[in-house]
Design goal:
The complex is a heterodimer of chains A (about 220) and B (about 220).
Chain A: E1 2-11, E2 14-24, E3 30-34, H1 41-49, E4 56-61, E5 65-68, H2 80-90, H3 97-107, H4 123-135, E6 141-145, H5 153-168, E7 172-176, H6 180-186, E8 189-194, E9 197-202, H7 212-215
Parallel strand pairs in A: 3-7, 3-8, 5-6, 6-7
Antiparallel strand pairs in A: 1-2, 1-4, 8-9
Helix pairs in contact in A: 2-3, 2-4, 4-5
Chain B: H1 2-12, H2 16-40, H3 44-59, H4 62-77, H5 83-109, H6 112-120, H7 125-155, H8 167-178, H9 182-211
Helix pairs in contact in B: 1-9, 2-5, 2-7, 3-5, 4-5, 5-7, 6-7, 7-9, 8-9
Classes of the chains: A alpha/beta (about 220), B mainly alpha (about 220).
Chain lengths: ~220, ~220
């Protein structure tokens, strides 16, 4: 559960977030954060995660939040398996972390890459490893920053499939993306940001007929 | 001539032990202090102290620091300090300032996202440094660190000014005894050069092994 109350953030002379109030409570749902570049989507996600701080306002959050970085941020000196098992072993003290990791790799079609280093993977594969790393920590909420950025069509389909699978486990997913088609294909709710403000908070019926409903806010 | 050189080589080799011991312990000392300085700098209160310390160590001549440790510190502490300890403290601390700066550069060149990824995975700070950040920094900065350790090896010769019987001092002793500077200095130079070749090759081997094995 995430509750944001009147969150504002200013960087220099630019208002990045302005009076954002938002409540995300439904378990097993995907909330899309849409908006043009520079609208504040990533900053909002980073504030929810605690990587950035707002100047005013409050964020309440329950449970552990995982974060999927736009540029993956895998640890380059560790193999795929080590990337996934490191935190579960050292933070959660999980004894069967390796088995869990291998299971995740199987689900993400990455089984044969367990001993490979991130530098040898394609963008889509890195994205899936990053997802596996985040999921291995059993997050209650998963925050995804532009998960399809730089990916080809097939990889995007993979990401859609995976996020929908994650959703079924009861995890709350908050996905920031400027790709409306992608968001409309997975989200149960889309919040549109423009110049740091929420300009629309829509449910699927708003875009099921026509994506133009969403595009008008851009 | 060749007979002279072999005699010189044999005599000067007795200084190898001190040179190698001094190099090894200074290297370990500088690595421990350098890593500590570089990482503790990220704690707000340590930053000013460490920056000041590093600035002084880099801003004063090493020979002055060596004399300070050997002649001034014993007076302050009321304890005698032998040449080897003074040498290790001086070379280790002086080099640690440079190592700290090398590592700082390496840390700052890493993407901020690596720290953030560790934070989002709730990895404790010390594990983040030990397993996530420093291994990457060491890989990236290994050639620069090898250079720093070559400098340590060469700077061990300063201990001869205090009377430490290292390679340099042995060559000076021999030169004074034989009234021949050319031969002993050439032989000492050759020893230093060979030692540095070994360090260089070890560094290159380590670079190949650790820096280029995973297509980062």
């Amino acid at each position: 559960m995430i509750t944001i109350v009147e969150l504002s953030k200013v960087l220099g002379d630019r208002t990045v977030l302005k009076d954002i109030s938002l409540e995300i409570v439904t378990r097993g749902s995907i909330v899309g954060l849409a908006g043009p570049s520079g609208s504040g989507k990533s900053t909002l996600l980073r504030c929810i995660q605690g990587l950035d701080e707002g100047d005013t306002g409050t964020i309440y959050g329950l449970g552990y939040k995982g974060f999927l970085f736009q540029d993956f941020q895998l640890f380059p000196h560790m193999s795929v398996l080590e990337n996934i098992t490191y935190a579960p072993i050292h933070v959660l003290g999980e004894l069967d972390a390796e088995n869990n990791a291998r299971q995740l790799l199987r689900q993400l079609n990455l089984e044969e890459f367990a001993d490979v280093f991130p530098g040898q993977l394609s963008g889509g594969q890195k994205q899936r490893v990053a997802l596996a790393r985040a999921l291995a920590m059993h997050p209650d909420t998963l925050l995804c920053d532009e998960p399809t950025s730089g990916l080809d069509v097939v990889s995007i389909q993979d990401v859609v499939r995976i996020l929908q699978t994650v959703k079924k486990t009861g995890t709350i997913l908050v996905v920031a993306s400027h790709d409306l088609e992608f968001l409309s294909s997975i989200a149960d709710r889309i919040v549109i940001l423009k110049a740091g403000q929420i300009v629309a908070d829509l449910m699927p019926q708003a875009w099921e007929q026509d994506l133009k409903t969403l595009k008008q806010y851009y | 001539m060749i007979e002279n050189f072999s005699h010189y080589a044999f005599f000067i080799a007795s200084g190898l032990r001190l040179t190698l011991i001094l190099t090894f312990f200074s290297l370990v000392f500088s690595l421990i202090c350098g890593v500590s300085f570089a990482t503790l700098r990220y704690q707000y209160w340590f930053r000013f102290v460490i920056d000041g310390f590093v600035s002084v160590l880099r801003g004063t001549p090493m020979i002055l620091q060596l004399n300070f440790f050997y002649f001034a510190v014993p007076g302050l502490l009321g304890l005698p300090i032998d040449i080897l300890t003074a040498g290790i403290c001086t070379l280790g601390l002086n080099s640690s300032a440079y190592v700290a700066e090398i590592l700082r550069g390496g840390i700052e060149s890493l993407p901020k996202g690596q720290f953030e990824a560790a934070k989002t995975l709730r990895i404790p700070t010390w594990l983040m440094w030990k397993d996530i950040i420093l291994p990457q920094v060491f890989r990236n900065e290994l050639p620069t660190l090898v250079n720093e350790y070559i400098t340590i090896l060469k700077d061990t010769s300063l201990i001869s000014t205090l009377g430490g019987m290292d390679l340099m001092r042995q060559s000076q002793t021999l030169a004074a005894e034989k009234f021949d500077y050319f031969g002993p200095l050439c032989v000492a130079g050759l020893y230093y050069y060979l030692l540095i070749l070994v360090v260089t090759h070890l560094g290159k081997w380590a670079e190949k092994r650790w820096c280029h094995d995973n297509n980062r």
